[in-house]
C-alpha cells in the first residue's frame, strides 16, 4: 500500500513537471511570435516609417506582452510544481525512515574478518581489481588465498562462454572423486555438451569416437541419457527437427555453468553466494520490521536491543531461511553457546556434550552413531547457526 501511495505521488510530480514545462514553452513561443511580428513591421516599413510610427509599434508590442503576462504564467505553473515537489520528500520520510540506526544492534565487529569478507566478495564476483584495492588499503593479505582459486573459476567460465570446455573438463577430471562424493553429474554433462558440439560442427566419426572414449564409462549408470545421445547420430545435420532437438537447447550450457560454480565453491568450502551479499539482502528484507519494532518499543520506553529473542517474526524469502535452532539427535538437547553443534568429518552433526561423551576423552577416537566413520574431538568443527 505504501509503495502504491509513493508511486501515485511521484506520478503527480511528473505530471505537474510536464505541464509546467509545456506551459513555459507555450508562453515563450507566444512572446517570441509577438516580437517577430513587431520586427517584421519595422523591417517592412523601415524607410517610410516615422519615429512616431516606431513608437506606436513598440507601444503595441508592450501592450500585447503585458496581456500575455509571461512572468505571472511562469510563476503560476512553477508554484504548482513546487508544491508537489515539497510534499513528495515529506511522504518519502514518512514511508521510509532515513534513520536506520534504530534497527542497529551494538555488536563488537572483528574488522579483520569483515575486511576479508568484503575482499572475498569482490573476488567471488570476479571483481579482482576491487578486491586487490581492499586488500591493499586494509592490509589484509591473507584474503588473497581465495583470489587465485576464484581466478581459476572465472577463467574456466570465460572459456565456457565461447564453448571451450577443455579447462572445465580438466578441472572436473582433477576433482573427480570429490565430485562423486557430492553426488554431482557434472562430468557427464560437460562431456555431453562437448559431444553435441562435435556432432554439430564435426564429423559423425569424430562424434562416435568421442562417445566411445568419454561417454562409454557412464553407460552403466546413465543408460537412458547415453541412449538419447547416441540416437542423435542418426539425425546429424537435422538435429533441430529431430526428436532430440531439446539436447541442443542453450539451457544445458547455462545449467552446467551454474553447477560448475556451485561445485567449485563447495570444494572451496564457500557458499555460492558470498556471505556479504546474503547478509545485505536479508538485512534489506528484514529492515522494515526491525524499524517498526524499534519505533513501537521506543514509544513504550522499552529497550529492544537487550532482548535475546525478538517478539515479532522477521519474514524473509525462502533462500534466506536458515536453521536457527539445532537439536542434538543423540541427547535431544537444544544447542547453546555452552553446548554448540559440532560437525564431524563424516558430515553428521552432534552437540559438543554428546561428542565428549562418545569420545570419553579428547584424544580418543569414537564411532559416529549414524555411520561407520570414526572421528576424534580434534577433527570436529563448531557450526554457527
Automatic annotation (TrEMBL):
Q: Which UniProt keywords apply?
A: Cytoplasm, Metal-binding, Zinc, Zinc-finger
Query: Which part of the chain is the RING-Gid-type domain?
Result: 328-371
Q: Has UniProt tagged this entry with the keyword Methyltransferase?
A: no
Q: Which domain of life is it from?
A: Eukaryota
InterPro entries documented for this protein = CRA_dom, CTLH/CRA, CTLH_C, Fyv10_fam, Rmd5_dRing, ZF_RING_GID, Znf-RING_euk, Znf_RING
In this protein, which residues make up the domain named CTLH?
Answer: 149-206
Gene3D superfamilies, sorted: Zinc/RING finger domain, C3HC4 (zinc finger)
Could you name the Gene Ontology cellular component terms for this entry?
cytoplasm; GID complex; nucleus
Q: Which GO terms describe its biological process?
A: proteasome-mediated ubiquitin-dependent protein catabolic process
Q: Where are the zinc fingers (RING-Gid-type)?
A: 328-371
Primary localization class, coarse? cytoplasm
User: Is Zinc one of the keywords?
Assistant: yes
What does the UniProt entry say about where the protein is found? Answer: Cytoplasm
A Pfam cross-reference name = zf-RING_UBOX
A single GO molecular function term of this UniProt record: ubiquitin protein ligase activity
Any idea what this protein is called? Protein RMD5 homolog
- Name the species this protein comes from: Ziziphus jujuba var. spinosa
